[in-house]
Amino acid sequence: MKKKKYIITVLLASLCVLGVILIQKHSNQKIINKIYSHRGASGEEPEHSFPAYDLALLYGSHNIEQDLVTSKDGTLYVSHDDNAKRLTGVDRLYSDMTDEEINQLRTSDNNHILRLQDVFDRYKKTTHYVIELKENDKQIDLFNNIIRQNNMEDFVIIQARTLTSLNKIKQTFPKITTLLLAKDDIEAQNACKADYVDIISLNTKFMTKDIVKIIHEANKQANFWTLNSMADINKAINLGADSYFTNYTAKAIELEKKHASFFH
User: Fold this and answer.
1) Is residue 29 part of a domain?
2) Does residue 81 share a domain with residue 45?
3) I need a labelling partner for 56 at 20 to 30 A (CA). Which of 3, 48, 239, 253 fits?
């Protein structure tokens, strides 16, 4: 009889431990999903490079960002700037260069300019990609083609600054997550009326309790950019932001964990 009670006690204890582990895993997953690694871990490694993406993923990020520009040959490359000068010293627009010319460029850290296909080839479906169409409508066909070719609809959050771009993409990929980069709170409130917008993103200067409430009441997610200081990240957490861009993935994860542990 004692042996039976002992076995039951051990089983119950094991189930309790397993339950705690599963709850903690779910909590960590929720925390990490809030964090968008802005151009990778770009506060520590060169932006939009494999080292920046690798480090963000090493820290545990599930979301790495790519800004897209288009070459003269119609290939999607990853760069925040439409001109190569800041990163490579070559004062030319990517749109005026062929693929061959862009492939020869090197940054000061000897990294080359990545194609979006290079990024997909390296990480495949092990992460999520937060992709911005820097040229909005002009890049839609190219974007749609590469998403189809790689079957990435479920692994992409697509960003644009125009509602028309997001509407067109949502019509092609109904399951894709869309994010509007709103220029101000007025544009954000207007986007609340669009059923094809899932996330509304604003600059940190518009990060207030009122705008978060307005976005949530419209059944949208509130996102902010770019949060790098402890003060800004803690503010986003306290206001109930659903996600945010940061150059410092590890810092954000630690602050999120600290906040979560305080309330559990």
Assistant:
1) no
2) yes
3) 239
- Beta strands in the chain, from DSSP E residues, in sequence order: 35-37, 63-70, 76-78, 128-133, 156-160, 177-181, 199-203, 221-225, 243-246
- 10 Å Cβ neighbour count for 184? 13
| pLDDT tens sequence across 77-119 | 999 999 999 999 999 999 999 999 999 999 999 999 999 999 9
Statement to judge: residues 81 and 158 lie in one domain = yes
pLDDT > 90: what percent of the chain? 86
Task: Kindly state the percentage of the chain with pLDDT values over 70.
Answer: 88
3-state secondary structure 81-110: CCECHHHHCCCCEHHHCCHHHHHCCCCCCC
**Is the residue at 44 inside a domain?**
yes
> 2 phi and psi, to 5 degrees?
-65, -40
Are residues 151 and 204 located together in one domain of the fold? no
Give CA–CA dist 253/260, Å, rounded.
10
| Predicted pLDDT at 4 | 61
The number of beta carbons lying within 10 Å of the beta carbon of residue 239 is 16
**Distance between CA 203 and CA 181 in Å, rounded?**
9
| pLDDT tens sequence across 150-207 | 999 999 999 999 999 999 999 999 999 999 999 999 999 999 999 999 999 999 999 9
Task: Tell me, yes or no, whether 118 and 189 share the same domain.
Answer: no
Q: Are residues 167 and 192 in the same domain?
A: no
Same domain flag for 208 and 106: no
Q: How many domains does one find in the chain?
A: 2
Decide if 24 is inside a domain: no
